[in-house]
Write a structure and sequence with these properties.
Length: 430
């Protein structure tokens, strides 16, 4: 027995230093890995995204993996790139989280992402992806968590024009029939000057003069006049419709509709109206077969395309669906709408001094087939693109462009909330 214990002590004296050395090496490796991960999360760049270094030229022969942190089954593989006819298509979209380490881009749909942190690897780019307005996302976990708020995201992807990748996929666009690069809103590389010349119109004489000026311009351009002889216009006997399910908004768009209804008929459908139907075909695979769309096209001349948030560039699919199905949208929101649709294709409620003056203008258009038809002349040159998928092309192209400088957002909440202020006081407008 004594010999056994002496032998055990001898073995321990040999093994103990060896185990200590192994543990020390493992701890050193863990420390280095944690340091590298931390460095990958916190590149020291300014809010202007200054250049740190350049990678070698891109190699489009390699397939880039783009990981959805939240699964969207309808955009798997390379389908969105093929559908959009992108110039660069060798990117693979996947929701498989086991491929995280191999992923080049990680896309976080921040509206539904749980509040927990995953470390970015040195070769990866994390993308802040959001399609809702700042008003509706101010309390999302990733904006509250300091670990994801500061120095976490490399790129941004949203509907807003100041995003790294501008995406209109869920919303829409107006595209030229002859030149796909001519579109509303313009592609990010196109410089379309702002034409936000909103002015308050306060008399019916002023309204008539405005209509005459626009009509004279149309005749000078030589555009053929779309008339009420078209089948989709002939049956319109009702004035204004609104399909709405969000009844209490910060900007109180419902109050504007209520005031407008004092002077003209406004038929309100959905949770906020008499008819309990869903909102305007948000999830319909074929909008043309949607009951609400058929009602718009067949019966109504105007539609209240009022946004639930008044934020920069926030123009939703309801605006484009209204244009697509031959009804004139009346807009009320925080965007410069002249960037989002051709001239004389919509009516901006903020152009009028009051809901009463807007009502007078609608009655004027209702009384004249020619004046009303003037709001469809843009269809001679443009068509609606739903969905507008150019943003996916840009994302894949950027994934391959290794000459792009390293970039990180020092404070993603500042960029999304503070730098894109939304209006919450309706008294500034009506």
């Amino acid at each position: 027995m004594k010999r056994y214990f002496r032998h055990s002590r001898s073995v321990c004296r040999v093994i103990a230093p060896l185990l200590l050395a192994i543990i020390s090496v493992v701890m050193a490796i863990v420390t280095v890995v944690q340091f590298l991960n931390e460095m990958s999360l916190r590149y020291p760049v300014s809010s202007s995204s200054s250049t740190l270094f350049h990678f070698p030229s891109s190699n489009h022969s390699k397939v880039k993996t783009i990981l959805y942190w939240n699964s969207w089954s309808w955009t798997m593989g390379d389908r969105p790139l093929i559908k959009a006819q992108c110039p660069v298509t060798n990117c693979l979209f996947t929701p498989d989280l086991t491929l995280f380490n191999q992923s080049d881009i990680v896309l976080f749909s921040v509206e539904t992402t749980p509040d927990y942190l995953v470390n970015r690897l040195p070769h990866q780019r994390f993308v802040f992806f959001v399609m809702e307005s700042p008003t509706n996302t101010v309390d999302i976990p990733m904006l509250r968590n300091n670990l994801t708020r500061y120095n976490y995201f490399n790129w941004t992807m949203s509907y807003r024009r100041d995003s790294d990748i501008v995406l209109r996929d869920f919303l829409g666009a107006v595209v030229s029939k002859t030149n796909p690069n001519d579109q509303y809103p313009p592609r990010p590389h196109q410089q379309q000057p702002s034409s936000n010349t909103t002015r308050k119109l306060s008399s019916i004489d002023t309204l008539k003069q405005l209509v005459k000026t626009r009509d004279d311009r149309r005749k000078a351009d030589g555009n053929p006049l779309i008339t009420l002889r078209h089948p989709w216009m002939r049956s319109k006997t009702k004035l204004v419709a609104w399909f709405v399910s969000h009844c209490d908004t910060p900007i109180q768009r419902e109050e504007y509709a209520r005031q407008l209804a004092r002077y003209i008929p406004v038929d309100i459908y959905g949770r906020c109206g008499k008819e309990q139907v869903t909102s305007i075909c948000d999830s319909a695979d074929d909008p043309a077969n949607c009951e609400e769309i058929r009602a718009l096209r067949d019966q109504y001349k105007f539609y209240l395309a009022f946004e639930n948030s008044w934020c920069p560039d926030y123009v939703t699919e309801k605006f484009y669906r209204t244009l697509q199905f031959d009804t004139v949208p009346i807009v009320l929101g925080g965007a410069d709408y002249n960037r989002f649709a051709p001239p004389h294709s919509f009516i901006n409620a903020l152009d009028f001094s009051s809901p009463k003056q807007l009502a007078e203008y609608l009655l004027l258009l209702n009384s004249s087939e020619e004046l009303y038809a003037g709001y469809f002349q843009w269809k001679n040159h443009y068509q609606i693109s739903l969905p507008a998928m150019d943003g996916w092309c840009d994302l894949c192209q950027m994934a391959h462009d290794e000459s792009l400088p390293a970039k990180v957002y020092p404070d993603i909440k500042k960029w999304w909330i503070d730098d894109g202020p939304c209006e919450n006081d309706r008294t500034n407008y009506f």
